[in-house]
Design a protein that fits this description.
Shape: globular
Strand order of the largest sheet: 7-6-8-5-9
Number of domains: 2
Order of helices and strands: EEHEHEEHEHEHEHEEHHEH
Helix content: 25-40%
Distance between the termini: 27 Å
CATH architecture of the largest domain: 3-Layer(aba) Sandwich
Number of helices: 9
CATH class of the largest domain: Alpha Beta
CATH topology of the largest domain: D-Maltodextrin-Binding Protein, domain 2
Length: 271
Amino acid sequence: MQGDRPEGHREQQTGAGGTIGLADFVQHKGDPHQLVVMDTVTVLGGIAVNKSPVDLRSLTPVAGLTKSPSAIVVPKNSPYDDLESLLAQLKKKPKSVKWTGGSLGGADHIQAALLAKSQGVTPSKFNYVPTGGGGETVSLLLSGAATVGISTVTELRGQIEAGDLKVLALAEKSEGQEIKGIDAPSLAELGLEEAALGSVGGVLAPSALSDAQQQAIVKMMRKMRDTSCWKSVLKRNDWADAWTPGDEFGGLIEKQEGQVNEVLKELGLVK
C-alpha cells in the first residue's frame, strides 16, 4: 500500500492483506493527491478475514490497470500431466491432493477453493497449506510436501523455465495474450470459467472527491497507460492490460466482493 504526497514524500505499509495500509489511507478523505495501489481479490480477502472496518466501496475508484496471470503447477516428476487428471483425483480423494499457495483467504487460496468446488468438493474440506509467497510455495512443491501449487507466473517463472515445475493451466488468460515460454490452457479453455476469479491490480483515491477530481485522476492514469514505458512494464511482468476506468472499476470491486465473501464463508474463514 502506498500513498503519494504532493511534496514527494512516500510511505509504504504492508501486512494483513493490505488492510494496515488501508486503515491509514482512509484518513486522507477529500485529498486528491493521495492514491493507493491495490490488488482487488487480495485486499477484499484481507478485509474480510481480518475483520477490517475499511470498505473499498467507500473510496473513489480510479482505474483497474492489470491482471497478473496465475499458474497452477506441479513438480516435474508429478504423475499429473494435465489439470483434468489432477481434478479427477481431487474429486475421488480430496485429502490426497495437497494444495499450496499464498496466505489463507488470499487469491491463491480462493482460486484453489473454486477449483475444489467445481468438482463437488466442499471448499472447507480440501487440503491447503498457506505460505508467505511464491518462494515458499516452490519449496513445498520441490520437497514433495505439496502436490500442486498456485502463484503468479512472475513468481514461478524461474522454476518453470528451469524445468522444475510443470504448468497444468493458467487461472486466466486475456484474449490474444501470449505468455512467453508457457504453453498451457486457461481454465476457461478447459470449460472451468466459473472456477476462475481474476484479481485486478488498480488504483483508488480517498473518499469525498468531486466528480471533476476523480476524472482528472482517471485522465492522468490514461495518459500513463499510453506511454511506451508502461507497455514495457506490462510485457516484462507478464501483465495483461485490464483498463477499467472510474465507476466501472467500482462496479468490478463490488461484484468481486460478493464472490470473495461467498467463498470465504464456505472456507469457514468468515461468518
